[in-house]
Design goal:
about 220 residues, Methane Monooxygenase Hydroxylase, Chain G, domain 1, Glutaredoxin, globular
């Protein structure tokens, strides 16, 4: 009788543990969907902002209106928003998100938006003479790369000190044809790597002070 009772207790405990596991998995899945949906909504906002910027620039080009300060302010804000989304997305490490496919699609959308904004910024700087601003392209690695993390911290500090600088961050290991073309253009082989103002490439970690010197800036 005692043996039967103990067996029933074990079966009951197993069933309870199994349902707790299922409940935990379901709740985790809901949190993942909620977080990724939030990130997707933020990217949609950036897409609309980018489309608005492109439309405004096309209007200026067609009607030969040149308002570089306005475009510069719009692009600066766009860069800040992209940076905020990038920091949000990196928190959702693919290893802790149950739907890795959805997470990768979200990252792909984000990186393509960054590349588009990076290209638009170059076009704007070429057409607006005298614009005093900096653009930094940051290639990082997410896999056991402390240097990339440290470089990210240095760049965050730099952006907070300089209000005329935009940083575009790219996961150098992420598979996307457009990013592969970008990496090939700059011959990116290591991470971290910085490309300063579309020309000067710096491989490996450098401090905020060193970046400021290369940019010719003082704080």
């Amino acid at each position: 009788m005692v043996k039967v009772f103990r067996k029933d207790m074990l079966v009951t405990a197993f069933i309870i543990a199994f349902f707790i596991f299922l409940l935990g998995f379901y709740v985790g899945k809901l949190f993942d969907v909620s977080r990724l949906s939030s990130g997707d909504g933020m990217i949609l906002d950036i897409q609309l902002d980018t489309d608005s910027f492109v439309t405004e620039k096309e209007f200026f080009d067609v009607f030969t209106v040149q308002d570089c300060p306005l475009l510069d302010n719009r692009m600066q804000k766009l860069g800040e928003n992209l940076g905020e989304i990038g920091r949000t997305i990196t928190k959702y490490d693919a290893r802790s998100v149950s739907d890795a496919e959805l997470y990768n699609k979200l990252k792909r959308k984000y990186f393509l938006l960054e590349l588009r904004a990076y290209t638009l910024r170059k076009e704007m700087l070429d057409s607006c003479n005298g614009e005093d601003s900096n653009v930094i392209l940051f290639f990082y690695n997410t896999k056991d790369n402390q240097e990339s993390l440290n470089q990210g911290y240095a760049l965050d500090s730099l952006v907070s000190d300089l209000n005329n600088t935009i940083v575009f961050s790219v996961d150098s290991d992420f598979e996307e044809p457009a990013l592969s073309s970008l990496k090939a253009y700059y011959n990116i082989t290591v991470a971290p790597t910085l490309v300063l103002n579309y020309q000067e490439k710096v491989e490996g970690y450098i401090s905020e002070r060193e970046i400021l010197e290369l940019l010719g800036e003082t704080v």
